[in-house]
Design brief:
The complex is a heterotrimer of chains A (about 350), B (about 400) and C (about 280). Chain A has about 350 residues and is of the alpha/beta class. Chain A is about 30% helix and about 20% strand. Chain A is built from ten helices and twelve strands. In chain A, helix 3 crosses helix 4 and helix 5 packs parallel to helix 6. Chain A is globular and about 65 Å long. The chains are: A alpha/beta (about 350), B mainly alpha (about 400), C alpha/beta (about 280).
């Protein structure tokens, strides 16, 4: 078992809306990513996965507010830190963040090398231009972008190149943790593949210590990350290794999510897509019991009143699910359904 | 709708602008309660702000002469001890008989007469400096009471002299006139004229703004929604009007219309038909972004007519923007009128005043050079307040409708 | 959803919509940009057709031309065997009784100033039900809503923005149910709704086809989705159809290099996602 690069314990954060209401979008999330490993976070829009990404950096500004919990990066707890200190000593160096529209955030009037100078100067004010260029060239060649990119402007690059450049710029300091929020969703499939390939290579070469990858595209997540966590209404409802999660989901919500994956493979045409009726709960007033109870077809009266706790099992407790029903019952139920469908 | 209104009135900028505007608007009703009509000649030429009394018809009612020392008498002005000291002086140094003094002390006027005829600061007598100074102080007080300086009210034959020891009760002056902002070169009351001019200018601004917005909105909607050659032609005209400074067109049109034809309505029409291009341009760009929205496509697929789509599916989306444009157009209409009138191209009229005309008159009669600030400072303030309140309301609305502008 | 849908073969029915050399050019002279380049197609009655392409492939331009919202620069479109004539407003209105659409973004598909009722009432009016008694109209709207698992009583007098994205998109299907057009053009109707609601919407589209015999033209960038749902797949690249045919043939045995690349680049579950087909030095 490797060393934990990133550990989050019971993190709770909230948004304050324009009308002054609190929205508890991250409500008790715990996770652990080991060195060289990656965790994927999947969920519907509005489940709090993007807020989780923002909350992980320990840099809070309105309307996002910190409530409680710990964020520990390589043994250092950053949750209680002064925001200015977080900005100058943690962001970029310890933890880097790539938002979905990152490629559109590049100032078109600046050459790529200037962004790198900016990033490096925050942490190493004494670095000279020549040193920076040397480092940047080495890194850019190593990730396949080529050193010519450094002297181009953002507008001269294609969408996929831009996104890869952004990733290379934000990880120039070799952060221990990279948080990528839908980094390839706006790209076409070939560019997406290139982005993923580059990120993988960067992990292998040690440019990124560990990674958290957020997306709503499950097939992508399955192919990119070692572990997958499914988020629903501000909480993780289940996590485990990518294979386990896709082929053996336990929580009824993950089960539904995995049942709606469509890929261009044999067998897709004949499959039954799982539909989950209803809409996620309002996070201004989260339900008292299980947050999924309202939409769950296995829900009993108990589910609406008792909030399920995280149940862990497996070697090193790498698998977790948050449901009142136990593991054998859920497995049996799914099997029976599967059997019933094929008998008809 | 309610929610939108609530949001609007939660924007501090809008509220401040709205309050200022309401105050200015309320002011424009002042002529209704003013005793003068806006153009009435009250006096001759410039008079500084103040309360004026006109004699001919004023003090004829009652002329009262009141001695200062009335019922309360000297006892009100001096303490018994002080009076005693004065009596003592009269006897000791003035050489007046004790009995005479006692007698005079009975009657305030007699005593005053005795004192003034006996004492003067020049009289030499032997006493301590402190005592002399004390007596001098009493004398000064008495002189003040018996002074004979006069105040003249009125002019010429009908001057009435009010002694400084007389009071004329203001209530009894029937024809006093308070001119809070004085009179202008024509001798008209500036306050009444200004407030009526605010009303006229606001009307002209609203009219010019409405005309400009109506033209701009129509052209913008048609060009943006229909596209193609309609757009090309309309955009050509819009660009033409944008390239030629609208002020030049304004001056040319205003100049080509005869003096007599330039009524306030005509001038606002002129301003209106030169101010529309930027409204048209911005409405057009807004409409172009809406034209390809799916709800418009869906409306087309439902077989609705172009007119109905424009009115029901496009206009409501840009309405907030149009209202903001209208507010700005009203503000710039008022400024436009002021600019034109300053150049002498404003409405030619002797029956109504506008803010611009008031500025023009003040300029023509060199009010600024002669320090007659009341003739133009309030006008400038009024124009400033109006455009300031319009801009505040506009940015307030902008903050509500475009939340990303909020800080 | 435990029942497996029976899939009839609709690919040999009578022709419903075809195109010959359909082209759209934006701009003039040197700046001319050929968005759709001489495409031919034959859509049959009751067929579920997918047009698959990445952004910039011209699929949205083609869909606008099919709908008659954008004039075609060259070529002709045949509707039910006859050349399509949409030269006047009346003829357009007539054509739109035969073809309708569902768009990608449910939030942009509604006029936010109109209540939900007016969207559905419009459809009834369009089908000539203007003078029906109000009770009858309510009955029709209730039926349409229940077709998409919505309750009309809960929706009436509401504004679109009070609904979730999935509900809005289902209401769009209810609208189609009322209009009963010959052809439905669905332009990425599931790309902005969550995976869980997607299944419901796809199921409803299949119901529309099965119950009304509607031809559905499904525009998407998601090749897995296209494979799951459609009978026939057209692959579009740079304004041209590079490959078309029955879904199984095109997806499981692609011939065109572009289709091959597309399918190999999409992440998969059972087959390995081969990252070695791309080189980091590629400029994509």
């Amino acid at each position: 078992m490797g060393k934990a690069m990133l550990e989050v314990r019971n993190l709770r954060t909230k948004y304050v809306t324009r009308l002054g209401e609190d929205v508890y979008s991250v409500d008790g999330v715990s996770l652990k990513i080991e060195e060289g490993k990656s965790l994927g976070v999947a969920g519907e829009s509005g489940c709090g996965k993007s807020t989780l990404a923002l909350s992980m950096m320990g840099y809070y500004f309105p309307p996002l507010h910190y409530i409680s919990g710990d964020i520990i990066i390589d043994g250092q707890n950053i949750s209680g830190m002064d925001p200015d200190k977080v900005r100058t000593s943690v962001l970029g160096k310890e933890i880097a963040y790539i938002p979905q529209a990152a490629m559109n955030a590049l100032n078109p009037t600046m050459k790529i090398i200037r962004f790198l100078e900016d990033v490096i100067h925050v942490h190493e004010p004494k670095a000279t231009k020549a040193e920076i260029r040397e480092r940047a060239e080495e890194r850019f060649i190593s990730v396949g972008l080529g050193k010519e990119v450094l002297d181009r402007h953002a507008v001269e690059l294609s969408g996929g190149m831009k996104q890869r450049t952004v990733i290379a710029v934000s990880t120039i300091l070799s952060p221990k943790v990279l948080i990528a929020d839908e980094p390839s969703s706006a790209l076409d499939v070939t560019s997406q593949k290139l982005v993923i390939k580059m990120m993988r290579e960067m992990m292998e070469k040690g440019y990124i210590g560990s990674m958290m990858f957020i997306t709503h595209e499950l097939p992508l997540l399955y192919n990119v990350t070692d572990d997958i966590a499914v988020m629903y209404a501000g909480q993780f409802v289940e996590y485990g290794s990518a294979k386990e999660m896709v082929f053996d989901p336990l929580h009824p919500y993950s089960h539904g999510l995995m049942g709606s994956i469509l890929v261009p493979e044999e067998g897709t045409r004949g499959m039954n897509l799982t539909a989950i009726p209803g809409t996620p709960p309002n996070l201004k007033r989260p339900p008292k019991g299980c947050r999924f109870a309202e939409r769950c077809k296995y829900a009993t009266v108990e589910c609406s009143y008792v909030a399920p706790i995280e149940k862990k099992f497996g070697e090193n407790e790498t698998r977790m699910y948050r449901c009142l029903k136990d593991e054998p019952w859920l497995r049996k139920t799914y099997e029976e359904e599967q059997g019933g469908a094929s008998n008809e | 709708m309610k929610q939108i209104l609530r949001n609007i009135f939660h924007s501090p900028r809008f509220v401040v602008g709205f309050v200022i505007f309401c105050i200015v608007l309320l002011l424009s009703f002042y002529p209704m309660i003013s005793i003068f009509t806006p153009m009435e000649i009250v006096g001759s030429g410039f008079h500084a702000p103040g309360t004026y009394v006109n004699i001919k018809s004023t003090i004829q009612s009652r002329s009262e002469e009141l001695k200062y020392v009335g019922a309360a008498g000297l006892a009100n002005q001096f303490t018994a001890e002080e009076l005693g000291k004065m009596q003592e002086w009269l006897v000791k140094y003035g050489g007046v008989d004790q009995t005479v003094v006692d007698e005079a002390a009975e009657n305030d006027n007699a005593f005053l007469e005795l004192w003034t005829s006996t004492y003067s600061d020049d009289v030499q007598y032997k006493a301590t400096q402190a005592y002399k100074r004390e007596i001098q102080k009493y004398n000064k007080q008495i002189l003040r009471i018996t002074a004979t300086d006069t105040l003249e009210i009125g002019e010429g034959d009908s001057t009435i002299t009010v002694k400084s020891n007389q009071f004329v009760n203001v209530k009894n002056i029937s024809n006093k006139v308070t001119l809070p902002l004085g009179t202008d070169n024509f001798g008209a009351d500036v306050l009444t004229k200004l407030t009526s001019a605010i009303g006229v200018s606001l009307k002209m601004g609203v009219m010019a703004g409405a005309i400009a917005t109506a033209i701009g909105l129509t052209i913008g909607l048609l060009a943006g929604f229909l596209g193609g050659w309609v757009d090309n032609i309309l955009t050509f005209f819009t660009n033409l009007f944008t390239v030629i400074p609208s002020f030049v067109i304004l001056v040319l049109i205003a100049n080509s219309i005869s003096q007599a034809g330039r009524s306030p309505a005509m001038v606002s029409l002129i301003i209106g038909i030169t101010a529309w291009p930027w409204t048209a341009r911005s409405v057009r760009s807004q409409v172009i972004s809406l034209r390809n929205r799916d709800h418009v496509n869906l409306s087309k697929l439902s077989g609705h007519s172009t007119a109905r789509i424009i009115i029901q599916d496009v206009l409501p989306y840009i309405l907030s923007y149009v209202i903001m444009a209208l507010i700005l157009q009203i503000g710039s209409g008022i400024l436009g009128e002021a600019q034109l009138s300053m150049l002498g191209l404003g409405p030619s009229t002797t029956t109504t005043a506008t803010l611009g005309l008031m500025m023009n008159w003040a300029n023509t009669f060199s009010a600024a050079q002669n320090g007659q600030w009341w003739a133009f400072v309030p006008v400038v303030l009024a124009i400033t307040l109006i455009s300031y309140s319009m801009n505040l309301m506009n940015t307030g609305l902008d903050q509500v409708f475009n939340p990303q502008l909020r800080d | 959803m435990s029942e497996v849908r029976e899939r009839k073969d609709y690919t040999n029915g009578p022709l419903c919509l075809s195109g010959r050399g359909v082209t759209r050019i934006f701009g003039h002279g040197e700046k001319a940009n050929v968005a759709v380049d001489h495409v031919d197609f034959d859509f049959h009655e009751g067929e579920f057709v997918s047009i698959v392409g990445e952004s910039g492939s011209g699929k949205t331009t083609l869909s606008k031309m099919l709908l008659g919202l954008l004039p075609i620069s060259e070529g002709e479109i045949l509707f039910q065997g006859k050349p399509r004539d949409i030269s006047t407003r009346a003829k357009k209105a007539e054509y739109w009784k035969g073809i309708q659409a569902i768009f990608q973004d449910p939030f942009a598909s509604y006029n936010i100033f109109h209540k939900i009722d007016s969207v559905l009432l419009d459809c009834i009016n369009m089908r000539g039900g203007k003078n029906l008694p109000y009770e009858k109209k309510v009955e029709m709207m209730t039926e349409a809503c229940s077709f998409v698992n919505l309750k009309f009583a809960e929706l009436t007098n509401k504004y679109p923005f009070e609904l979730s994205g999935g509900q809005m998109q289902r209401l769009m299907i209810a609208r189609i149910f009322l209009l009963k057009p010959k052809i439905l053009l669905a332009d990425e109707p599931t790309s902005m709704v969550d995976a869980c609601s997607r299944a419901t919407i796809l199921d409803m589209l299949l119901n529309l086809r099965d119950e009304i015999g509607m031809t559905i033209i499904f525009i998407t960038h998601d090749i897995g989705l296209a494979y799951y749902i459609s009978d026939t797949v057209y692959i579009m690249e740079h304004g041209k159809f590079v490959e078309y045919g029955k879904a199984d043939e095109v997806i499981l045995n692609p011939q065109a290099p572009y289709t091959k690349r597309l399918i190999s680049d999409v992440p998969k579950i059972h087959e390995e996602w081969d990252l070695s087909t791309v080189e980091l030095t590629d400029d994509y």
